[in-house]
Every structure is written in structure tokens, then in C-alpha cells.
Amino acid sequence: MTHPRRTALALAAILLAGSALAGAAAAQDKVLRVIPHADPKVIDPIVTTAYITRNLSYMVMDVLFAQDAAGKIQPQMAESVAVSADKLTYTIRLRDGLRWHDGADVTAEDCVLSIKRWGARDSMGQKLMSVVAGFEQPNAKTIVIKLKEPYGLVLESLGKISSNVPFMMPKRLAETDPAKSITELVGSGPFIFDKAAWVPGSKIVVRKNPNYVPRKEPVSAAAGGKIAKVDRIEWLIIPDPTTAMNALINGEVDYYENPPPDLIPLLERQKDKVNVAQLDPLGNQGMLRLNHKQPPFDKVEARQAIAKLMDQKLYMQTAVGNPLYWKECFSFYACGSALENKTGYDAFMKPDLDAAKALLKQAGYDGRKIVIMQPTDIPVTSAASLITADLMRKAGINVDLQAMDWATVISRRASKETPDKGGWHIFPTWWIGGDISNPITHAGIAAACDRSWFGWPCDEAMESLRDQFAKSTDEAKKKELANAIQKRALEIVTHVNFGTWFNPVAYRVNVTGMIPSPVQFFWNMGKS
User: Fold this and answer.
1) Along the chain (528 residues), what's the average pLDDT of each consecutive run of 10 residues?
2) What confidence score (pLDDT) does residue 300 get?
3) Cα–Cα distance for residue pair 376/51, rounded to 1 Å
4) Distances in whole angstroms, Cα of residue 91 to Cα of each of 97, 127, 168, 191
5) Could you tell me if residue 206 is inside a domain?
6) Which of 125, 151, 174 is the last residue in one of the domains?
7) Is-contact 24 521, C-beta < 8 A?
8) Quick count: other Cβ atoms within 10 Å of Cβ 237?
9) What is the CATH number of the domain that holds 127?
10) Which helix (DSSP H) or strand (DSSP E) does residue 91 occupy?
């Protein structure tokens, strides 16, 4: 349990230390102090899909293409793109003025290597790379992508808005083994990562990039002009929610990214000091991720048993509470998105304890301990862990609920070891609606074995369907395929959906420029 007085003292120490380090010369800087939703112990946005790492990387790194508020792909680092008549060649021209934070010019080679590294890890990138015949760089500003066959999602892949985002990085970083994390964060974006000011578990600082040349178009989600309106952004890691709330109310911080649902009414009553807003139109979908490599979940019947225990209303009422901020959602694609459907959900709409017990018996469950990783510093997923453990115990499962912070979950979920040697069976997580709007962006339903997202589902039929979706240009056919993919995902239980909720943000009344989007962006934000 976190001691409120100790946490408050820790906050004071962070703020005082920040003031001392800044010095008199920096006293006039305009600083935006933010409480992020987690501590990004992993800083490589290609190695991890963690949203906290994605958010940090968006400030520092840039992308070739970006998704606007209407969901359309727009040029970002790219000045232009030309597609050949046979749709087998994409020629991308980089815009002028692109420089890495170390002073070197951005080159086509840097970008090609960045695409390849991203394509080795990301589920959508893997599909794209499977049809790429090769890359060419006729000059330092031109990227040529040659395809083996026409592919309907080239720019959509390169403009993917969320994890894993195809961020561009210098050659020396892009050449890093995709399975190993980079140790420095260098990009060409509107802010520079201040590694010297980084205090893991306490504070992260980025400062304005004086050499960044923003696009001239107005900001729109991830697209348009990325304008740094403050000199520095400081992320302060404050795990205790009450301390974080009081810091915001007292003006010690400016922005609270993810206040727990039970604190929202208290913040809403501080109208003279604090605004509360919902910026994400699609919300978050909760996911119980099952480890397909570890018994008993290497058997489909055991995975189906967990799905049979699912009660979205119970999860959402317990974890979120206020019905204004949650809903049941019987679709693996975001509810409210174009592909939302209930195909295959008939067997999983209501919990069935007896059916779960019977399926566990069919799977040959032997009473072994089932390790659930519980991220105690994320209120919704912490509650989801407790509910899952309780339901599993009622089904006769021997549960080992292991409490840890989210940063530890992020690191440990990559382990393929047995649970007694640092591996795991289940962990709760969530995906923003923008990540799960179609079968290719949705990493949770990819079933490409060891190349799949953590949990590593393996199913040839699923991958065949996803390939067909990616290559189809017929919208009616794509919708038909999307439904078939969801049906298959529910049959093999790639994961379990425990409901949809919306996270309002809270910020001081003098903070301006928030960008409505499924992703938290920090450019364009200022203080009056």
C-alpha cells in the first residue's frame, strides 16, 4: 500500500529537484508538468507496444505518414508519394528541413532501415513486409518501395497511428536487432529527449527542438503541424492517485493523463481550477491476454473456459463504476468503428460457470498454479486482475495472483519461460479503439506464432484470412472477411474482451491545445 505522506514528500522532492537542476537561466522557461499513466522503463517503441512508450516517442520521433482526425492518411515527413499504374512501386520524397536531434540530416537510408526494423515486430508491418520485393534509395531524399503484388494497405501501414508506430530513427539505432531495445531515444520530432534529466521511476524531461520545422497544415490528430508551444515537458511519475489529484488541484502539475474513475467526480467539482474532458471518441477495449505457449492454455478448451467466465458488466461496474464511462462491447473491433460486429459471439455473451468447468476438464487441467500478472498502478487493469482471479477460483483453478507495477508487466510479458522461471499465464491490458479498428492493425488477433504479439497465438487459418483482408480492395469483401476473422479469433480464443471504457483527462484551466484523438499527443499544448 502506498503511504500518502511519503508519496506527497516524494512529489515535493521531485518538484524541488527539478527546480534546482533547471537553474536560474531556465527559470523563464514555459514548462508543462504532466502526470502520465505509467512509467516508461522501456523507451524503444518498436520492442514494446506499451502506450506510455508510444506517447513518449511521439514527442521525440516523427513518421513518414500520419492519420488525421477523419482517419485519412496524410504526408508527415514525406513531402509527396507517387504510385505506379500497376500499383507495384511507391516513390516517397522526403520534405526539406528534416534533421535528427544529433544534427545529421535525415536520409532515405535511415528511413528504409527504420521501416524494416518496425516491419520485423509489428503485426501490420509484418503483413506489409511479406509483399515487399525490395527497397531502393536513388538519392538521399527518395525512398522507393517495390511490391511483389498490389497491396491495399501500404500507406495505411506506414501511417499507422498507434502501437507499434513506424517511427523513423537514425541509421545507428535502426540497425539495432528488432528483438533488442535501443538505449537512446533520438528522433527528428518537435521535442528532444533529455537523457541527463531522466530519473527512472521519477521524472522524464523533453525540451523543445529549436530546429524542428513543422508542417504548415493545421493540426489534426497525428497529422498536420506539430508545434511545440512550451520549452519543456516534464513527466512526473506519481503512483498514488490521491496525491496526483491534489497536485493537479493545487497547481503543482498541469495535466493528469489518466485519473481513476472514482476521482473524476472530485475533479469535476473543481471547475474554477480544473477541466475534465474526454478526448478519445472510441475509448479503450479491455483484454485478458492468455499465453498460448504455456499449459493449460496451449489447449483451446482451456482458453475457451476463460472466455466462458467473462462477464463484461461485472468487470466494468467494478473497475470503472460510472456508467457514463463504460459500456459492454461484444465485438473484437472497436465498438463505434466501421467493422464492429457480433459474429461468433453467441457462445460468449453471458458467463457460464458450468461450461467453463467442463471445458477445463476436457483440457486436462491438472491443478497447476496459474500466474496472473496484476498491474497495481493501473486502476482498471488492477481491478480486472482481481475479478479474473475470483472467477477462475470459482471454476476450480489454482490462481497465483502476482502484484507488480505496469512497467514490470511490460518487461515480463515478453518472457517465454515457464511461469515458475519468470514467465506468465495471463495478464490484463487494453487497446485504444484506433488500434483495433481492423484485423491488420489489431495485434491481439494476429496468430503468426512466434511473430505474434505477447501470448503468441498460432493458427494458419487465421493468418490466411488476414492475408486475404490485407490484399483485398473490395470493401464488401473486406467486411465479410473481417467478420470471418473475428469468428475464428473467438473459436481459438486469441484473447478475451472484458468491456469498453473511456478515460477522461484532467488539466488546469490555463492549459490549452488538447488534440481530440485516440492517442495522447503533447505538441500543440500550451499554457496561458
Assistant:
1) 44 48 54 95 94 97 96 96 97 97 98 98 94 98 97 95 97 97 96 96 97 96 97 96 97 96 94 95 95 98 98 96 94 95 96 98 98 94 97 98 95 96 97 93 95 96 95 90 98 98 96 94 95
2) 98
3) 17
4) 19, 19, 17, 28
5) no
6) 174
7) no
8) 22
9) 3.90.76.10
10) strand 89-94
Q: Cell triple for residue 161? A: 497511428
Answer whether residue 24 is part of any domain.
no
Pull the grid cell for residue 411: 518487461
Domain membership of residue 87 as a residue range: 65-174
How far apart are alpha carbons 5 and 3 in whole angstroms? 6
Q: In angstroms, rounded to a whole number, what is the distance separating the alpha carbons of residues 341 and 347?
A: 14
Total Cβ atoms within 10 A of residue 361: 12
- For 254, 273, 507, the CA distances from 248, given in Å and listed in that order, are 6, 9, 7
User: Considering only CA atoms, which of 165, 116, 172, 120 is closest in space to residue 145?
Assistant: 116
Q: Rounded CA gap, 69 and 92, in Å? A: 23
Question: What CA–CA distance (Å, rounded) separates 495 from 504?
Answer: 26
Q: Give a yes or no: residue 161 inside a domain.
A: yes
Does residue 215 sit in helix, strand or coil? coil
Amino acid, res. 247: A
| Number of domains into which the chain is organized | 2
Sign of CA dihedral 217, 222, 228, 229: positive
Helix (H, G, I), strand (E, B) or coil at 107: coil
**Helix crossing, 4-22 with 241-249: angle to 10°?**
50
Number of Cβ within a 10 Å radius of residue 138: 10
In a domain, 58, yes or no: no
339/327 Cα distance (integer angstroms) = 17
Pair 282, 432: CB distance under 8 Å:
yes
